[in-house]
Amino acid sequence: MLNVFLCLGLFVSHYTVNTEIIYQGFNSSFVPQWWQPCIIYEVYVRSFKDSNGDGLGDLNGITEKVDYLKNLGVCAVWLSPVFKSPQLDFGYDISNFREIDPIYGTTHDFDRMLEKFHKAGIKVLLDFVPNHTSNMHDWFKKSVKKIDPYTDYFIWKDAKYVDGVRSPPNNWLSVFSGSAWEWSEGRQQYYFHQFLVEQPDLNYRNPKVHEEIKDVMRFWLDRGLDGFRIDAICHVYEKEDFADEPLSGKPGVLPTDYLYLDHPYTMQLPENVGLVKEWDELIYSYKKKESDELKILVLECYAPTKKLMPYYSNDSTCRSTFPFNFNLVEHMDRESDAQDLKTMISTWLINMPEGSWANWVISNHDRDRIASRMESTLLDGIHMIQMMLPGTAITYYGDELGMENSYVRWDQVTDTFALNYGPERFQLVNRDPERSPFPWDDTKNAGFSDASNVWLPIHPNFWADNMKQQSKRKSHLRTYKQLARLRQNPTLIYGDLDMFTLSKWTFGFTRSYKDNPTYVVVVNFGSETETVDLLKFRPTLPAILKVKVSSLNSGLVTGNLVNATSIFLRPKAGLVLITSYSNEV
Ligand code: NOJ
After folding, report:
1. 88, 198 in Cβ contact below 8 A?
2. What's the CA-to-centroid distance between 490 and ligand 1, angstroms?
3. For residues 486-508, b (16+ Cβ closer than 10 Å) or e, as one string?
4. Which residue of 42, 89, 193 sits with most ligand 1 atoms within 8 Å of its CB, as the best mutation to test the pocket?
5. Where are the alpha helices (DSSP H) in 4-151?
6. Which of 45, 320, 478, 537 could form a cystine bridge with 296, CB 3.0-4.6 A?
7. pTM for this prediction
């Protein structure tokens, strides 16, 4: 059914690059949707909190921590996959989309958790994996046996015979290394898998698959779920002629590595967007009256910014499907200077469709933690940027503490991707280090679990640096909470954005809205001490500014006054300043 609810009272923003103002905000008729000023917090379920002493995090563990998340200031959580699964890719290999895996709890635990989050005013998103299932899924087992309607639910191809030797139908490679084709003795054909052998790809050229997947989505949405994080959306369609992919020519990669080829025929096909539009309609159909809150879809796809823009809902001011913005994950590193930051940020803002809302990701369960990728000293400054820019902020669990990657030895590796690479090369791709358990306190297993062994090593520094400890002092956690609170301020929701390269290494921006006080963010990415003159870049600022939030290493505290012509910044220090001296703002 086409939903005819009209989104009223919105005003479309726009962006200019020719002047200093890079982003013009919204006017006061804009009614922000719940997910816009929001922080979406990724809970990697296995590592958040174990409630039953088996060394793995679970749903009841998360329920215990709702108050922590409420207090942190997040408004939505996204849970890594909790559906029934053999766990070869830790839940991204689903054998039943409608059941909770027993290692995480029961459907009753899920409902209880959802209720508790909702009572706390926090929305819940589940990670949804439409590209593939587990080979243990009933659909796949029946497809192997050609039992209808499942016969064509997956991508099957006959073998190619080269000099009488059976070989895969083409050269396509799996993201997790090796051929993307696996021979099925049962069916006497190859099936296609973009990820593990045990993760066969669904066939979206089959309309029945569309209906199955939408039914699964409805199943959870009808239970009260607020939306989904959609996994691997760039991978759902493949080119129909199954032509070989071209060699990438990249140096230092093995012929079995995914990077050995370019992927024009297996990634980012235009059909992917069409599929997302079907789901966008589906989630929008849940908004039946004005007071119903929108459900959301957040899409995971690593692709150049321009290729991601079509995924935004068509009427992006009042619809709620959007692609993750990974620009800060993919491009920000220890070499980044102020101009690089400005480019990374403006690339998204300039390319976004008119009136759309941005989002900023800095870490996730597939990439090194931000504090390890950059430097933990710089973490407060990076959070200042992420939280004060216009757009939704996405936080990976533990980043609020500045959690760092844990070292994981070869004998401790659990990530199948890394296991595929073997003992010599596993460090290149291992995702275990960023998935280690959350350090709640300095007790056994950092308060994460009572088990004698937990599934991954906890960072050995947990005794000194943990959530409890950080709650008692000036810390990354406190800075994070201060920033989270500011996000409800109208200037940060509606305001313009003006960005500056204050020096080669000092990046800054202002957020201003009508006559409200202006916020100024300054962050020194360099290893040199800097003194910057803000008035050179924005002469209308007052001569004296007040410190609203300061990084741990700044030497300043909230309420200090600073001279706008000579802002002193230690290496990696960051400040949020404000033009008002009142304590009210
Ligand atoms: C992307 C997920 O984030 C990753 O963890 C997973 O292994 C692959 N998709 C396959 O589902």
Report:
1. yes
2. 36
3. bbebebbbbbbbbbbbbbebbbb
4. 89
5. 59-64, 66-72, 107-119, 138-144
6. 320
7. 0.96
Contact 236, 192 (CB under 8 A): no
Omega cis (within 30) before 149: yes
Measure 234 CA to ligand 1 centroid, in angstroms.
Answer: 12
Question: Sorting pLDDT into bands at 50, 70 and 90, what band is 585?
Answer: low
**Mutational pocket test of ligand 1: of 79, 87, 92, 131, the residue with most ligand atoms within 8 Å of the beta carbon:** 92
Residue 355: per-residue pLDDT:
86
Distance of CA 285 to the CA centre of its chain: 25
Mean pLDDT value across the chain: 95
Give the residue carrying structure tokens 């084709």: 181
- Mutation probe of ligand 1 site: the residue of 82, 127, 231 with most atoms within 8 A of C-beta: 231
Q: Give Cβ neighbours of residue 281 (< 8 Å, ≥ 6 apart).
A: 2, 3
Beta strands of 233-329 (E only): which ranges?
Answer: 296-299, 321-323
Give the binding-site residues of ligand 1, using a 6 Å CB cut-off: 89, 92, 129, 195, 231-232, 300, 365-366
Minimum CA distance residue for ligand 1 atom 2: 231
Ligand 1 atom closest to Cα of residue 194: 10
CA-wise closest residue to 420 among 412, 430, 411, 407: 430
> Which residue matches tokens 């500014």?
545
Nearest atom within ligand 1 for CA of residue 176: 7
Task: Supply the residues annotated as catalytic.
Answer: 231, 300
Q: How far is the CA of 92 from the centre of ligand 1 (A)?
A: 6
Residue 12 predicted with pLDDT over 60: no
Q: Is the pLDDT of residue 190 over 80?
A: yes
Which residue ranges form the domains of the chain, and what is each CATH number? 10-31+328-391+496-585 (2.60.40.1180), 131-203+239-269 (3.90.400.10)
Spatial neighbors of 202 by CB under 8 A, at least 6 apart, are 130, 131, 132, 133, 153, 154, 155, 209, 213, 236
